[in-house]
Amino acid sequence: MVWLNTLYGVLNACFILLVGPLIDGVERRIRARLQNRRGPSILQTWYDLVKLFRKRAARTGVPLTLFRLSVYTGFAYLLIVSLFIPSILCGGMGFFGDLILFIYLLSSSKVFVLIGGYSSGNPYASIGSTREVSLSMASELVLAEIIALIALSRNSLLLNSVFPVTAVLRPSVLIGLGILGIITYIEHSRLPFEIGEAEPELAGGYTIEYAGRDLGFILWSNTIRRALLTTFLIDLIIPLDVFYHLVIYPVLLFSIMIVFTAIETACGRLRIDISLKHVKKLSYVMWGVILLALIGY
Amino acid sequence: MRPRNKCELMTNLRRFGEPRLRGKYLFISRIKSGRLKDLVDYLHWRLGGYYSTSIGVDERPLDGYFHVYHVFVLEKYGVYVLVDLPANPGHPVVESITPIVPAANWAEREIMDFIGIKFRAHPEPHRLILPDDWPDNVYPLRKDFPYDEKLPTSDKIAKLVRESPSDTWIAEDSEDHTAIPVGPYHPALHEPEYFELFVEGEKIVDARYKGFMVHRGIEKIAESRLTYNQVPFIAERICGICGFTHSTAYCQAVEEAARIDVPERAEYIRSILLEIERIHSHFLWMGVAFHLLGYDTGFMIMWRLRESIMDLAEKLTGSRKMYGANIVGGIRDKWDIKEEKVALINDTLGKIREEYLKYVPKIISMEEIKKRTRGVGILSRSDARKYSVLGPHARASGINTDVRRYRPYAAYKYVDVEIPVEDDGDIYARIIIRHEEIIASIDLIHRLLDNIPRTHLHADTDYIPERRYGIGCTEAPRGEDLHFVITGKDNKLYRWRPRAPTYNNLLSVPTMLRGEHLADAPIIIASIDPCFSCTDHIVVVDLRSGRRRPLRTGGLVGGR
Amino acid sequence: MNRIKVLLENLRKGVVTEQYPFRPLRVPERLRGKPVIDPDKCAGCGACVNVCPPNALTMRDDKHSSMRFIVLFIGRCIYCGKCEETCPFGAIRLTKEFELAAESREDLYQVVGLRLYHCPMCGEPFTTVRLIKRIVEALPEEQRAAAIICPRCRESVTAHYRSYARR
Fold it and tell me: Phi and psi (nearest 5°) for B349?
């Protein structure tokens, strides 16, 4: 069965790689409609990426190795995650402790991109990266707490055996899922928490020095990360079953993304100190929820 | 004790020099030696007037002297005070008033650049507008400088670019703070200018501004090549947002100088178009403000609403922005607002008002908008007085000033103008002021349309006498817009100086930035509704000529 | 929730953006677009050249070919409509055309060439044949003779007659 799981993993990864930019295209269309605009084709993000991939990365006189390597390392990390997280097919290359690896890879892929941006030495990139790092530190603490809660509720650290966490219907699990929804939103870096790129303030923040193929991979990574985080949320909710994953999963994936887009469209940008306060509050709530789980609710 | 009327004012002013009242203008000449500072202090700080601008004129062909006119506005007495300082052509030096009135800083430096009059005891006697590689002792607005003169190109710039290290990004970092360049091209600023912010972490500790990057020399062109009736068109093109206010101010200045009576109907049409322009400008500003606060939906909504105003303007004048209606003496024939157009305006504005009220009160009650604008970018009332800020910016800091009410022009003489004033002095107050002004303007247009009289559209302007002084003021969407003219021979101006409100307002920005978050810098800068092209309005400045900070060049041409 | 209401209001309003340039744009009657000179009406008087604020209209007399050229360069035009207002023959009009991007600079020029009229006395060209014809047609019989000679010759002729009269 190893080869079958490998095949599943590869197919899942392909799905995520392809669908990430597609979701972004749909989101752009939705956002446009909410703002009285017509909006681009839903394939627009793919067109953009293809165009960027064709372009040479411009030399900007910054140290190349770290600057470029970090982009591809970050991308590779996400690729690995998509191999073992069940998405369109319910299966993948799971192994013991992959729950921890999941959060580790997901967060470090982001950190890599931020380090890359920081290494350019551009002051905007430095500020963008610093903001993004402080926000994701805070939100990943909450994510870790949620993982702890899940492991606690399902007594396992194996992804395939914690899914779906809704199999145990406890108040703590439900609250935990709710908070995971919020954290997923924040980790998507959507408004009001989109503060690392902040076009009107930082002119693109940590991505400012990237161009061509490198920029393409950063944008692609961002869509993939969003898709993966949402997939994780859905996996925790729906049963690990062929039908559910083939039919219900894509529907949920797109619906969640559309709801998120609508929320994003209704928001302005918060300042870093205010957003951090919000995330910290979530973290305190989460400690309470873990206590709740420990006493058996 | 403040003098009660103009007569008492004149008596009081005799202590300092020789006041002469000519209509609305109160010239004070032959200032007694050593009394200039007392006079300025009296005008600006005791009489409740504000400093408007300073104008340098090369009047050597007329009376043998250079002249500096400091313009103060005493709204209470309804006069413009022009402090006349002649400067000896052989050794043009006058005393600086910047130590007493900080708002005069730029205007005096501009005169140093263009006319070559030196200001004694000016705190920052550096170049303001002319590029650093401009040759010394060449003053472009002197009458002996031909307008089509081409100066030899300097190789200084090439040298600067060659010498600057290519891998250094940050200019002038010190041990405890980092310098963040905002501009000359930055997505938050839609025109070229340069702010240098010094930050510790995300806190701004200091800010510096360098502007005048799109100075185009139009004053010189107007003085040497254009006739009176051609200038309104170039004046309109000073600004891409509030152009009509510039052409109106210019025409009013010439009309004042030549004592031309503008027919009432033309005044009404001017006022109506000015208010349409104000609405579109405020819509535009609000959209940009929402965009800077990250709320792009708000941006789209405001610009959608603005589009109906633009369409209206296009139907009325044939162009979305360049109305082209003004000539000296009135309004051009084809720009008449006839019956069916009255209905069209009333209709469109009614719809816009309704839709606007559906959206904006909801948007400005949003948490992000409030949290990021309340208590941010505060300009206190005393600082506002110090820098003589104008328009909505001043009104948000509790200063009740408006050209339309206190020195009414065009049709504002015949109607009441509602003027909102807020006391908080923060960005939120500036949003509220403009929000209320939009509503007030819509209502005002309805009232103007109801009363529009049937008269001619323009007065006869065959003869404009020589060497008359005129000041034309309008309340532009950003504040008082002042045009100063001296009439000349051959159907041409002798001197023309437009001063856009941003010129005064910008000086207050560093004060507002200090101590704030870097994230708030764009919205703070934008909250004065800066119009850099208006302010610069005059010779292309090369961006790369940073004499004092050559490192910046390295960052700008990083591709090498 | 105010922000939701704003979005719902937007949804109710629907799409407002235009599909320009894929669909043509409707422009109002009054639009001031590209000026066009009607070469049949233009008499080459140069009134438009005098008023044009940005010098988009220029005039050049070529003695060699005995032609006067009125040159309109759209690249400088600001669409103020001063020329239309001034033209005594209604020869220059602003159209509603606004898509003026061109592949070459030459496409932005309109040149009207008119035959120059030479003064029968001194032989110097001073106006166009068409303008002289129109002036002559508009004048009563007895004034025509004075109109067909150049201003300088007219001056000397008048001076001559005056000196006779004084004797």
Answer: -65, -35
DSSP tally for chain A: helices H, then strands E: 12, 0
Is A122 in CB contact (< 8 Å) with chain B?
yes
Domain membership of residue A139 as a residue range: 2-294
Segment-wise mean pLDDT, segments of 10 residues, chain B, 560 residues: 83 90 87 89 88 93 93 89 92 93 91 92 87 82 87 60 43 60 70 78 79 82 90 90 93 92 94 95 92 90 94 92 92 90 94 94 89 90 91 92 90 92 93 94 94 90 88 92 92 92 88 86 84 53 29 27
Does C100 fall in a domain?
yes
Domain of C131? 28-155
Give chain A's domain count.
1
Distances (CA, A) of C120 to B211, B335, C146: 61, 45, 11
Residue B210 backbone zone (phi > 0: left; psi -120 to 50: alpha; other: beta):
beta
Q: Say if C68 falls within a structural domain.
A: yes
Torsion angle of C-alpha atoms B242, B245, B251, B254, degrees rounded to 10: -100
Indicate the class that CATH gives domain B218-534: mainly alpha
> Can you give the residue ranges of every domain in chain B?
6-120, 218-534
Kindly identify which residue of chain A lies nearest to residue B290, measuring between CA atoms.
Answer: A268
Contacts of C6 in chain A (CB under 8 A): 266
Interface size between A and B, measured as CB pairs under 8 A: 92
- Three-state SS at B448: helix
Q: In this structure, are strands B25-29 and B479-487 parallel, antiparallel, or unpaired? A: unpaired
Residues of C in contact with A38 (CB under 8 A): 15, 17, 19
Collect all residues of chain B within an 8 Å Cβ-Cβ radius of residue A58. 559
* Domains in chain C, number: 1
Which chains does chain B touch, 3 or more C-beta pairs < 8 A? A, C
ipTM of predicted assembly, 2 dp: 0.88
Shortest Cα distance, chain C CAs vs residue B343, angstroms: 16
CATH assignment of the domain containing C129:
3.30.70.20
- Identify the three-state secondary structure at position B162: helix
Domain-embedded: residue C19: no
Contact A35 C10 (CB under 8 A): yes
- Amino acid letter, residue B93: V
Inter-residue contact B55 to B71 (CB < 8 Å): yes
B 277-336: CB under 8 A from A: 290-298, 300-301, 304
C105 Cβ under 8 Å from any chain B Cβ: no
Unique residue bearing structure tokens 């083939």: A246
Fold of B6-120: Beta Polymerase; domain 2 (3.30.460)
pLDDT 10s digits, B344-385: 999 999 999 999 999 999 999 888 888 889 989 999 999 999
Chain C contact partners (≥3 CB pairs within 8 A) = A, B
Give the residue among A180, A162, A169, A136 at the shortest CA–CA distance from A285.
A180
β-strands B65-74, B50-59 pairing: antiparallel
Spatial CB neighbours of A33, under 8 Å, sequence gap ≥ 6: A39, C11, C15
**Residues 6 or more apart whose Cβ sits within 8 Å of residue B510:** B206, B207, B208, B209
Determine if the peptide bond prior to B420 is cis (ω within 30°). Answer: no
Q: Does residue C138 lie in a domain region? A: yes
